[in-house]
Design goal:
- The chain has 64 residues and is of the alpha+beta class.
- It has a single domain, classed as Nucleic acid-binding proteins (OB fold (Dihydrolipoamide Acetyltransferase, E2P), Beta Barrel), CATH 2.40.50.
- Helix content is 22%, strand content 33%.
- It has 1 helix and 6 strands; from the N terminus they run ββββββα.
- The chain has a two-stranded antiparallel ribbon with strand order 1-2.
- The termini are far apart.
- The relative contact order is 0.19.
Length: 64
């Protein structure tokens, strides 16, 4: 299937994955809405694929 792989992290995102992202740009095409674009970022802590966020929380709990 379709997927994105992180250059450094090698983590994968696949079609249908649940993620948490921040919208950084919008380009709305009113004449042809299918050509509209939404720019996202997931670089901040607490962002990314939901499984990654859970893994980070577990690591923090283990350090305490």
């Amino acid at each position: 299937g379709r997927r994105l792989v992180g250059k450094d992290t090698k983590r994968e995102l696949r079609l249908g994955d649940s993620i948490r992202a921040r919208i950084v740009s919008l380009s709305i095409n009113e004449r042809n809405p299918r050509e509209s674009k939404i720019g996202l970022t997931m670089r901040q802590p607490g962002m990314g694929k939901l499984e990654w966020i859970q893994e980070e929380r577990k690591k923090k709990e283990e350090k305490k």
